[in-house]
UniProtKB/TrEMBL annotation:
PROSITE patterns: ABC_TRANSPORTER_1 (PS00211), ABC_TRANSPORTER_2 (PS50893). This is Peptide/nickel transport system ATP-binding protein. SUPFAM superfamilies: P-loop containing nucleoside triphosphate hydrolases (SSF52540). Belongs to the ABC transporter superfamily. The keyword Cytoplasm does not apply.
Amino acid sequence: MSLLEARGLHVVHRRRGAAPVHALAGVDLVVAPGERTALVGRSGSGKSTLVRALLALQPLDAGTLVAGGRPVRPGRAGALRWFRRLVQLVPQDPALSLDPRAAVRDLVAEPVRRLEPAVAPADRAARVAGALEAVGLDDDLADRLPGQLSGGQAQRVALARALVTRPRLLVADEPLGGLDPPRRADALALLRRVSQEQGTALVVVSHDLAAAAALCPRVLVLDGGRVVEEGPADVVLAAPRSAAARALVDASVVAPVPSPA
Ligand SMILES: Nc1ncnc2c1ncn2[C@@H]1O[C@H](COP(=O)(O)OP(=O)(O)OP(=O)(O)O)[C@@H](O)[C@H]1O
């Protein structure tokens, strides 16, 4: 059975005084358990709208979302707890997503408190320890505040928060945005390792095709709110068929380093 199945998603953004924008114009996306999929596209292609739709945070003009065989309908928070445990977001800017007044231990415990209130305190503590270990953070860091963490550590805490409810799917929105090259490589390696070790499926959103392809064996190219190309990452990179994919491949090519004069 598929883990997440989105069919015929349509979203129109309507703003007073502005023309409506058809941000998603019939997107289908099926994610199998453990599968890693990259969603790539230029700015404005509809990636963020699709992420919000996949997380049931975006009202749909048409289409359906089914997770683990069960229909997902945006609604009261309590009614979607099962879905929030199953599908977790890895936020774009981890440092901004962490409450500066809360210690790491409480930040990582919070999703369990909110989504699984029946879990006993001792079990919750064990879950927190497990999530910190999974992302390679030492237990010594658990009493620190976010302001006392490095950028890389904050990113790991955000990932631990996403993992602590043992989701089957992580949606990472531009996980490499704003990172310098060594930290990009670390972030890619961490997401790959966690996905493989925990069997968690990944949907990674990026405008950088080459980086996303390094993490995900499967790529979907979005343009104008539609999936214009879909296939194995190495094939899309080596022989893009759509103009949108070709433009992304060209943009991903690393400029040659000029030789010293
Ligand atoms: N709240 C909104 N109101 C009106 N238009 C919107 C809104 N959100 C997005 N749009 C428009 O919908 C289209 C898709 O936007 P979206 O943010 O989903 O694309 P994106 O691929 O994530 O872009 P980026 O990479 O720049 O974040 C764009 O034309 C955008 O201007």
